[in-house]
Each structure stands twice: as structure tokens, then as C-alpha cells.
Amino acid sequence: MQLTMIEQQQDATWKRIQLNTFTRWVRQKLEQVNVAVSDLETDFEEGLKLIRLVEVLSGKSFGRHNKKVIFRHQKLENISLALQFLENEEHIKLVNIDSSAIADRNLKLILGLVWTLILHYSISKQVWDHPSGQLGNGEMSAKEKLLTWLRAKLPVELSVTNFTFDWNDGILLGALVDSCAPDLEVGWRKWLPSQALQSTLTAMRLASDYLGVTALIEPEELISPAVDEKSVMTYLSQFPGAKYTPLLGRLHDVVLTPVVGVSTIFKLQTRDAMIVPEIIIKGPNGSSIRCIQRQLSETVYEFRYQPETPGEHEIMATVHDIASGDSAKLARTKVVAVEGTDISSILVDGLNNETVIVGQRKDIVIDIGNLIPMKNGLEVIVEEIGKVDRSKYLLSLEHERNSHIYRGFWTAERLGKTKICVLFDENVVCEYLISARHGEDITKCRALGEGLERAVVGMPAKFLVDMKVM
């Protein structure tokens, strides 16, 4: 019974996500002609908004139709006109969709129609920039085309096999944005699965600001285990046609949870040396926060400020082009200042900057004392460095309820260097760099000499140890 309830909840969740996504897609198209959309179940029943949607998608204008709808037969005529146009003029195959289903508000079939339009106009008719040119042929399905394009666009070390859980942690999306706009320096390689929402928020904001990719799905929906592939495909289908537009400037390295009373630094990079920035920071009560500016290079500026009270702060950036006289306001960035945590009292036992043997286990004990987690709590991040297929993961920790002692272990599984970072509420407690090497085979060590065969009491016995084979 419990499993059935969970399945019902997941079923309801993906249906809600799909309805939201499809509604945003339709709204995005009809905004171009100032037509409002709020409810797909009822918006198409007169046929008027459906006709306008098909006109926008096809780029063709309809002839005569009922513009003032009073009777049911007028609704059916309008809807039939749109459906016949899709089949006869656009050569789109419609399955089990007729005018009465839409007029009668059959939401399942209406969503089926919208998905057919998304597949045709947003994916199948997409202009693909794949190097092989294979995506232009008609042999591949729309799903295969999009998946193939994504695989070619993403770094080789990242695997993408689906349009559901592969996109739940924000890392793939960050890598995709980075690939489409490499000079943004997204920094997705440092992102962690445990910070999925923050990573997805960042990636979607950058995609919107710099690539013009509309958030057809909410970050909370994209990271949901119940998200459906049609919703994810609808959002991702915008990337192949996205064009990177460098802005006059951009903020980066902004700490989203600065600590009250602690100096916090962020940077602003301008497009060229003739552009100068202006920063205003407002505190929770609207008061201005003092900000110190320092120019690091011709195009990079550093800003330092110190939150005085906890709560939401707003960073407002304006850039001025000296040559043209143009000015532009960058997207406002909101951060939330929090009370500081004294992490110096945290004790870590079992880790050192040292060399270990491959296969050797390191038992780790961490005592956080009386600290209370406010965000992610205690985390141990393991990162193998200097490798093409470098891996980065959270170490599993165990602790009893109401205990301040955490225990875990790490085993060096292959040669090379590994960085282990201990964090508490995203603040670095300590970092260790550990090297792993193969153990020595002592059976190959040889000792020889007369002193091993015979010796005189009280006299030195000489022998040699050959370690060259080790």
C-alpha cells in the first residue's frame, strides 16, 4: 500500500511538471503576438489561440475563420481548420486528436498535441550544428537527434544517456552552458551532486542571461526524481539554436551566503578595457553597504564588502562604455548573509598530508563539537587530481543520532594524488593532499655476505642487502 501511494505521488508530480513546461512553451510562442495563455485545458477550446499558435510556429497566415465564437460548431470549425492545416500543409501526423477532444477540454489529448508541435517545430526542424552533418537526415528520431547533439557538445568525460535523472544534479546543464559560452567560466567541474538546486539555478540563470534560453522548466522541477523526459527535452531543445551574446560585463565568484562581519569578495569582468563598472549593494533594510573596488587588470575588477546584519542583500551592477556612452544594468544578484560559524573547534583525526599504499584504508573520525548545521552540515569531498577521468565524490559518513562524532573511511584505489577537503556548511575546515603508491614486494629483497654464513662472537659480521629489485 505504501509503494502504491509513492507511485501515485510520483505520477502526479511528473504530470504537473509536464503541464507546467508545456504551458510555458506555448506561452513563450504566443507572447510574440501578445496572446495570453494561462490554462491549456481551456485556452484552446474556441480554436482561436490554437490558430494563432500554429500561425506563429509555421510562419504562415490562416484565411477565414470564426473570430467571434459563440456556438459549439464554431469552435469545432476553428479547431478543425488548425488540425487540417497541420496535417495537409505542414505534413504533421496527428494520432487520436480531433476537434471535439480539444473543445471538450480533454487535457491528455491537448498535451499530446502540444508535444507533437514541440517535436516538429522545436526539435525536428532545428538547424543542427553537428560536425558530421548526420543530424540533418530524416533517419534519426527527434530524441536521437537531440541526444546526439548533446553528446557532441558535452565534454567527453561526461556521459549522457537519458533526459531524466542524468540532469537531476545540475552538473550536465552547467557543462552544456559552459560549452555554448566557454568564456563564462561556469566552473561546473567543482559542483557537487549534493548542491543540485544551487547548481541548476546558476546554470539556468546563465543560460537565460547569455544564451537567451528561457526557463521553460523550474530548477526545482528539473532536479526532481519524477521529472519526465518530454519536459527536459522541451527545455534542452532551445540550446542547439542558442546564440551567445557577450554582455558589457558580468559578475562572477559571488558568494551566495556571505558571513556577517566577514569581508567578502566578488569580481566583475568587462567586455573590454573601455568599459567601467559601478556597484551598489543594499542591505536587508535598504541601507547602502560600503564596497571597496580594486582593478586587477584591464577588464577585471575586484569588489570587497562586509555584511553588517543577517538577511537578504542585493548586488546591483551597472557598466558604462566610455567610448560609446552606453550603459547597461546587469542582472541583479541576491545573496543572503548568515551568522558566522566558528569552525576552528572541529577536530579531524586520521587524515594528513602523506603518502599511502594503494589499497590502504584510512579511518577518519571528525568531532564537530556543539556546532549546529545550518545548511549542508559536515561534508568530506574526495577528488582525484591529475587524471583525465578524475572523479569527485562525497565520502560517506556515519554518526549516531544526537552524536557530534562522525566516522568514515577512505581507501586509495589507484596511483596518484588525491585531495580530501573537509567542509562544514560549505566552509572549508581543512584540506589534505595524499599521494598513493604501490607497496613494496619484500620477497624480492636479497641479503647476502659472509656475515650471514658465519660470525665470531664479539666481532662485526658484514653482509649486504640488495634493494635494487624493489
From TrEMBL:
PANTHER family listed in its UniProt record: FILAMIN-A, JITTERBUG, ISOFORM N
Domain Calponin-homology (CH): 16-122, 140-244
Record's protein name: Calponin-homology (CH) domain-containing protein
Ranges: Filamin repeats: 437-470
GO molecular function: actin filament binding
Keywords carried by this UniProt record: Actin-binding, Repeat
SMART domains in the cross-refs: CH
One GO term of the biological process aspect: actin cytoskeleton organization
Stored Pfam families: CH (PF00307), Filamin (PF00630)
